[in-house]
Amino acid sequence: MILGKTCGTVVCTRKDERLNGMKFLIVEELAVNTQKPTGNHHIAVDAVGAGASETILMVSGSSARLTGRTINCPVDAAICGIVDEITMDK
Predict the structure, then answer these.
(1) What CATH number should be reported for the domain holding residue 53?
(2) Residue range of the domain that includes 55
């Protein structure tokens, strides 16, 4: 899983019909230990109703096609969780 923060949206009027009704968000990766941006960005299908500037968990590759909304869909990244809190032991 990848820790990230939503930072934008992508609108596609023409797309594979299996993607109709799905929301696409731009996600900036966050370093797990510092929660600071890494500079890497992804476009992900929102499978959980994430909002603007939310910290999220994202999966990629074949795992992105295993959520309830993305099964058998042509996606490579999916938001599968909204983070409430992060606690790390030192």
Answers:
(1) 2.40.50.220
(2) 2-82
Question: Does some domain include residue 76?
Answer: yes
Stated pTM of the model? 0.92
pLDDT in single tens digits along all 90 residues of the chain: 999 999 999 999 999 999 999 999 999 999 999 999 999 999 999 999 999 999 999 999 999 999 988 999 999 999 999 999 999 887
Query: Rounded to an integer, what distance in angstroms lies between the CA atom of residue 87 and that of residue 61?
Result: 27
What's the rounded Cα separation, in Å, for the pair 69 and 58?
A: 14
Can you spell out the DSSP letters for 40-65?
A: EEEEEEESS---TT-EEEEEEGGGGG
- Residue 90 resides in a domain: no
CA distances from 65 to 23, 43, 44, 46, 60 (A): 15, 14, 11, 12, 8
Closest by CA to 7, choosing from 51, 69, 38, is 51
